[in-house]
Amino acid sequence: MSLPAKRSDAVPVSAGDGTAVLFAPLSELPGVGPVLEAALARLVGRPKPRLIDLLFLAPRGWLDPRPLAEPGLAPDGATVALAVEIAGPPRGGGGRSWRVPVRAGAHPGELVWFHGGGAWLSRRFPVGARRLLVGRITFRGGRFALAHPTVLPESLLASPRPLPVYPLVRGLSLARLRRVVATALARLPDLPEWLGPSAAGRPSFAQALRRLHGSSPVDTPSLEAARRRLALDELVSFQLAFALERRRRAQRPARPTRGDGRLVTAFLSSLPFSPTADQRAAFRAIVADLARPHPTARLLMGDVGSGKTLVAALALLVVAEAGRQGALLAPTELLARQHHATLSRWFAPLGLEPALLVGGEPARARAHALERLASGNATVVVGTHALIEPAVRFADLALAVVDEQHRFGVHQRLALLDKGAGVDLLLLSATPIPRTLRLAVLGALEVSELRTKPPGREPVDTRLVSSRRLDEVVAACGRALARGERIYWICPAIEDEDGAEGAAARARFEALARRFGARVGLAHGRQSAKEREAAMRAFARGEIALLVATTVVEVGVDVPEASVIVIERAERFGLAQLHQLRGRVGRGARPATCLLLYDERAGAQARARLSVLRRTRDGFAIAEADLATRGPGDLLGARQSGLPLFRFADLSRDGDLVHEARAIAADALVADPELRGTRGRALRELLRLFDREAALGLLAAG
């Protein structure tokens, strides 16, 4: 049963300009100067943070401010609340810690600071004053200590309520962040309802945000009701955006594309193997899509090594047979060049020369590629974001293939599709996507799955190894290098950010370079693209034999000679991401090995989760396990970009909301196709709130 709104939830706030209030910069809030704004920008991941960005920052936990009656009841090292009386002046200093004696009831203790000053502490904690504090408690010699405690408002003693605990960045304290959030909440307007009948029994959008941030007494059921309301809003925004994109495509005419089979037949006869049944079925579906009189969109999902590139190549050949053009969009220059090299090798005997358009091309080569596209002399082009620049013009674009589709936004896909009339869309995903997640983030796309793999690829020997055996792993790598093998060594971070010994890429590179010399290279996301890709090319050519890297090698590097991959602190990665990384080896003739180094302190549960990779190499099963244990961000790569895929929705338990959101979006567009009515205008605001403004451009009247 849904709980009724509490009185404090329903405090009316003037809507003013509606959502315009929520898009105001945080710098307009009192007390938010340039330094604080910069910290908040880092926290929310937006250069100019807005009120809505802060309000969408969901707490990662809650703090119970009710003080313990007996300090000794707390386990050593726990975070607790205590009501204390200041028993004496600060003492210490002179390079030592500062300590303030206190009493909690009859129990003596002290507050400890490792920096600060006696005068500041005397003003903050005068003798005889009472304070409600939260801190990490330790015990020594019958006394308790709180290190660097946080002072809570004494009003919480009379009316305790859970306090939100937020993620933090350097230069931002939890107390200061709570004050800024409270100021932002005070400006939160009550917006028109956009859910229609589905809003019954649920808190409003504004009520849900207030409950989420604890501006009123809350309990677990009301917090969950608030989260699910916001999750439904988020999912409706996604579904509405996808529905508008689908409708736009369905309404645009397209010239059917039909090939005569000559290039496809010649290509298939040149292959030293036969395509799998899944590849043939996917190709037949794409051929049918191309022949339709309206644009189509299809997702081609295939596990690591399942042959998605071959299917995409066949589709591009059908387009070339029809005398039209196809484009393959890749997320990185390295991956684009790899695709271009593969297609060039395949298509050269057929008399086709694919064009290449990437940011790093010389001006003369770029001008030549642009001329070939505009004239129609190039029927196939491979490129990066450079393909969607305004200067790029096609003579007759019929098919857009988007590799690693999750790395491109809707507006980027649309920018490519708008370079032709009625362009068909083929999305490639190397990560099998569970059905619930597929419906949530990709709408009702047509889907083809590649579950069987071409013959010849042996399974990768996957082992779990404790990080305590690091020296043994390094020695084994030395033996592999002596045999002429190439090795990936993957680290979860660039810097040693959390004190994990040697788990950062730079530290590991330095250690391995001291052992193995110039044969060791380094690639990570903070290098320039030129420097990073140079390291990867050197590894591919064999100029370096051991590449220390972060997950930048998850896609974009195809090195058949690589036979070993070591993944350090494997418990930090999602299963699907580990499966992707494992797919970097086992592409050549040598037997391949994947060593998952884990920290035993992560516990039995983390080891059990990693053992899934030992039991199966079925990417679909691994993806389902990942969704259940880690969430969608790992599956779609959002973690790499630093942005969560969903702020509020948890697809491992919100599958019912995905289906409800689809129905809400569909019904709303049937009732008001251009979203001009009262509820339609509210839905437009919903799209803006969740950064789906690109979808508004898909409405006929804008």
In short:
The protein has 25 helices and 21 strands. With 702 residues, it is of the alpha/beta class.
Fold topology:
Elements: H1 34-44, H2 51-55, E1 61-63, E2 79-86, E3 91-92, E4 98-104, E5 107-113, H3 118-124, E6 130-140, E7 143-152, H4 155-158, E8 163-165, H5 174-186, H6 205-212, H7 220-251, H8 262-270, H9 277-290, E9 297-302, H10 308-321, E10 325-329, H11 333-347, E11 355-357, H12 363-375, E12 380-383, E13 397-402, H13 410-417, E14 424-429, H14 435-442, E15 446-450, E16 461-466, H15 470-482, E17 486-490, H16 505-516, E18 520-523, H17 529-541, E19 546-549, E20 562-567, H18 575-582, E21 593-598, H19 604-615, H20 619-629, H21 632-635, H22 638-641, H23 655-671, H24 678-689, H25 693-696
Parallel strand pairs: 5-7, 9-14, 9-15, 10-12, 10-13, 11-12, 13-14, 16-21, 17-19, 17-20, 18-19, 20-21
Antiparallel strand pairs: 1-8, 2-4, 2-6, 3-4, 4-5, 6-7
Helix pairs in contact: 6-7, 7-14, 7-23, 8-10, 9-10, 14-23
